Amino acid sequence: MSIISVYTANAQYHQKAEENPFSLVYDGAIIENVKGKVKIHPVSYELNGIDISANVYTPANYDSSKKYPAITIAHPNGGIKEQTAGLYGQRLAEQGYITIVADASYQGASGGEPRHTDRPQFRTEDISGMADFILQYPGVDSSRLGALGICGGGGYTLKAVQSDKRFKAVATLSMFNSGLVRRNGFQNSQIGTIQERLKNASDARQQEAEGGEILYSGVASITDEEIAKTTTDLYREGYEYYYRTHAHPNSTFLYTTSSLMDLMTWDATDQIELINQPLLMIAGSKADTKYMTDEAFIKATNAKNKELFLIDGATHIQTYWKPEYVNQAVNKLVSFYQTNL
Known about the structure:
Blueprint: H1 3-10, H2 15-19, E1 39-47, E2 50-58, E3 68-74, H3 84-93, E4 98-102, H4 120-134, E5 140-150, H5 152-163, E6 169-173, H6 178-184, H7 194-209, E7 216-217, H8 224-229, H9 233-245, E8 255-256, H10 260-263, E9 278-284, H11 290-299, E10 304-311, H12 318-321, H13 323-340
Parallel strand pairs: 3-4, 3-5, 5-6, 6-9, 9-10
Antiparallel strand pairs: 1-2, 2-4, 7-8
């Protein structure tokens, strides 16, 4: 299925995006910039020759002559800045932070071809690119920069802060180790087919090199019946979130098959002992992805003041949108950043 036909197949669920002036799809999203309240500022900048599309959120009564702590927010795999990453950007801005949420290179409204390339080195560079931009933004205190990564963005954030010491405090929410899952399968369900899938990815790259059709992996669109039959909470609730309740035309579960050459040889926990900043990892107690947070947390042996915080009763996707779980996550994040920034 082509990218255009994917958008067409899912278009009936894009009402929220179409109705919001900033195409935000999360509940409670800003619909206009009002004096004295949190504001959203669409921005763009160039990173390694690619135009990046981002939103900056500023606190209520923002004064560019004052100094504010800032936080970069990396979105989930398949996600974009208008979904859960934007929700957390807005909520943290309500607590006095300047936040930036950018679409990854090759994804969302950012540039880059082929579309939906998903290589870890690009996603990691995107996070440092957000830092490049926001550290020059009026009112940002360069000595108080924090990072937040959600789902796949959490894994990439763990990698970025290993070397980028401009980040003074690091947090993840429902961390997803993309390399581990693309290599071994979710919950290690595909270990027996690693070499076969690497061969397929290599063949896809050669086809691209020869000017042939770009091959995609993942799920293009899905029926209600297929969603109902999905056994894992992550994917069933993920399909509902991305293709139903919080659908956006820029968001898709697809990624180029050739990306697997890089994804399958990468791991968020490789060299994680280089993280020496304060570290907070948040996960739902019922998340079927929690094993990834647990593993990374144990391996982050040099992180300062590290803490694992569980949201009781929450699944992975529920931390993206469910008010009682979002509130708990935001409260914990604010406490963490206040202490460490």
